[in-house]
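request received
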Amino acid sequence: MSKVVSIHSFRGGTGKSNVTANLAVLTARAGKRVGIVDTDVQSPGIHVLFGFDEDRVERCLNDYLWGRCAIEETAYDVSANVAGTTPGAAVFLIPSSLRTGEIARVLREGYDVSRLNDGFADLQQTLRLDYLFIDTHPGVNEETLLSIAVSDTLVIVLRTDHQDYQGTAVTVDLARRLETPRILLLVNKVLPPFDAAAVSAQIGATYGVPVAGVIPLSEDMVRLASNGVFALAHPTHTVTDVLRGVAVQIQ
Amino acid sequence: VNDGRVGAAAVGEDERIARLERRFDALIKAVIPIGVALLATREFDRMLETILLEAKALCHADGGTLYLRTDDDHLQFVMLRNDSLGIAMGGSSGGEIPYPPLPLRDPISGAPNHRNVATYAALTGESVNIADAYCAAGFEFSGTLAFDRLSGYRSTSFLTVPLKNAEQRVIGVLQLLNAMHPASGTVVPFDAGDVPVIEALSTLAAAALEVYMREEGLRRQIRALHIEIDEAKRARQVAEITESDYFRSLQEKLRVLRTRPG
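response:
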């Protein structure tokens, strides 16, 4: 039985897509089959991290949501780029469309959110996934609520910022109401110098939720920006160590 | 400020050249490498210690103290070393320094405290070179004398240099104690020719101290995160969502899903 892991943040700019990509890759490198769904159909982006040429994408999540194809037809095997040589490892990416027409249609018409749920289940089965990572849209809308609801683990990414504190409180409450089995917090972009243990203890106590990791704001991360998966570009970096620790807690 | 006894004696040309060479050597072998190391380091407290030890070594000083100027205008002991007494406090030694900070001003009158040589250097921004504390006019060495009485030590020569930041504000003081004659090991006055070298090291120490203090300030700020959650707003936002038809139907569907076998 595969596990569903949603990565969410209340506001944009927390580094959510980066975190999702890294956790997925690090999990795969532990010999797992993972899928990554970009449900951020209004502002997709995770495919960029995998060096995905959007012109070559024939089918994407939007096509499935409009009933044009089966969801497994929208999955791209990117294992060759990211999984390394670990036996059993595989990474599949299910991108959202970047075509403005498609994005406009999502905004205009919405889509049948329950279809998304069926899609998650199909993916897990047909691709024989150990883990399905969902990169959600920031804020709270129907598809994020659905993603949170069907997740085994919800990872909420936040910064040490007033608005993030408030939004995280709301998301934690909603996840509890939806009885998500496991909620983890990931504090990202913490200004160095910082005391990881103190940040972790304070934030954990505030929400009554375990803090899976505290990631410093890293120049190297900023430099790489969206040009790749950080854990692959910097496998021995302290940031990668923290991400690896989070990936272990998810497994 | 120089009490006149140091470097006053006429020196021969050979000795003058030897001293210049020594200063040149000190700049090349100590000051510049420390400057380069500062560019790459993240450990500014370690660098401060390196600078203190390097300054001590250059003057063959038995002791050295680094003070920090606090926001409330005191000189606080940061690091203290005394080789012949085997004292290492502050820095990587891990030992706390028990001495109280020196006030830069009289707490009642607000008058500048020129009595201590360290506070004098901090207030005036001038280096002070004293050949023998026991017969130095104008300064009060009561703290030093008390220390000597307790330890059996004889504090004699002092070189005290203010640490100035880029804006020429004094942010600390470096003080070296008891220069030793390299050959005989007897306590001698600090060579006036060494003062510019120690002053050069002090500009590096000031730069390191400033970054260190800024980072410490940030660290303290982050240690005490200011997490404020508007609970009324939180409850309202959560209610708005959980009372929606979508949320209720989602909960309903989940109930069915979760009771399904497998």
